Amino acid sequence: GQQLNQSPQSMFIQEGEDVSMNCTSSSIFNTWLWYKQDPGEGPVLLIALYKAGELTSNGRLTAQFGITRKDSFLNISASIPSDVGIYFCAGQKGGKLIFGQGTELSVKP
Amino acid sequence: GAVVSQHPSWVICKSGTSVKIECRSLDFQATTMFWYRQFPKQSLMLMATSNEGSKATYEQGVEKDKFLINHASLTLSTLTVTSAHPEDSSFYICSARNSSTNEKLFFGSGTQLSVL
Fold it and tell me: Which of A104, B15, B45, B69 is 20 to 30 A removed from B88 (C-alpha atoms)?
């Protein structure tokens, strides 16, 4: 079946540092999305990407949709403690979402 | 913004009993809702697509008789875990999309199921 490979699995960084994570897929998706999930909660949408090559920002977050529609990255600049959580990429096709394995981010004050 | 309400937030039940989880779209109509399962430290795995007024579509490997889905109205889908066993313990999450605008999916806050 379709799979999204997300890396890294976990990151431990110092407050103020920039963070980068990415996802790759063997399949083409129409839409790529990045979510953040806090413990015991459902995922919350951070950024949605609709066009190949699209670069979109949301505050300190920046994400890009790869030209081939098979990959995407998410950057977080100047991390703060509340950035802690698990970040998921997701590819959308036909209304369904396929999620990556997640990147667990820990931020040390 | 659009809100999806999921209830209960957590439930503990005895092995062999059935548990019903509700997913409601509070301010929009959703002809399609999705049910996911998430084990600790793992990704969300799509279980089934819930279609209003018709049968749900299950992903490969998901037992339809085990996980009963009912989407009787445009704002409510229910997932019933029948004859629950400890291995069914997991975090269940629903999502829904506004049928009128077909905009982004909104997720519920999840239900933590623990089967003793």
Answer: A104
